[in-house]
Predict the structure of Biotin transport system ATP-binding protein.
Amino acid sequence: MIELDRVSVVVPGIRRDDPGKVLLHGITLELSERRIAVVGANGSGKSTLLRLLNGLRQPTAGTVRVDGHDTVTAGKQVRGIVGFVFTDPLSQLLMSTPVEDIELSLRATVRGRAKRLERARQLLDERDLGHVAHQSIYDLSGGERQLVALTSVLAVEPRIIVADEPTTLLDLRNRAQLERVFEGLPQQVVFSTHDMGFARTAERVIVVDGGRIVADDEPGPAIDHYVRLMA
Ligand SMILES: Nc1ncnc2c1ncn2[C@@H]1O[C@H](COP(=O)(O)OP(=O)(O)OP(=O)(O)O)[C@@H](O)[C@H]1O
């Protein structure tokens, strides 16, 4: 369970008389559903909200807790529970090939390089990515790259996945494939998206506007609210 209690995020101004910019205004949420989508216009605060959930960003005021662990004071535990998938997998893949990247992830949980490499190859095979295991990550297609990034995050078995627009850079076919992969994950998944079809696969849709939650409902009414807002 993720809990946000009166969370604000403020970026300080550059000059002394500049009050700064409020990115999120006093948000209180309990996130327990298996699939939660966050939608909103560009710059509305979706990424800021999602980054709070695994401690990538810290609140200026209020608290974020994951299974009772505060993301500020217990960041390590939180990152063990919440895996984060970025829009651009190249922001996340650190090694030059898929097998090496997954081996790196596994250093947190598996002892011995040979064992880690074997497990990495097995995880890639399970996602039908065995044939690209030793290919440069720069030579993968966008879809393959995002699947490798997701496989790398899943390798350490997080209980919750937070994904920031994971399908935005993909073509329609890869988008559909990745959405199916997300739908099949046993983990709780909190994702942001501009794709209303993807948002409709969630049980709950949260609409963010100007750093505030303006709708929080089942997909039908929440997406209707968002569409009216954008009209
Ligand atoms: N470190 C920062 N300093 C100043 N402004 C910031 C900072 N980080 C984010 N912002 C601003 O906060 C607002 C919300 O950004 P955020 O990335 O959360 O939006 P978003 O809803 O994810 O947008 P998009 O759909 O375009 O990805 C934007 O106006 C952005 O420019």
About this structure: The radius of gyration is 18 Å. The chain has a mean pLDDT of 93. The beta strands are 2-11, 21-31, 35-40, 61-66, 69-70, 82-85, 160-164, 188-192, 204-209, 212-217. Residues 11, 21, 23, 40, 42-48 surround adenosine-5'-triphosphate (CB under 6 Å).
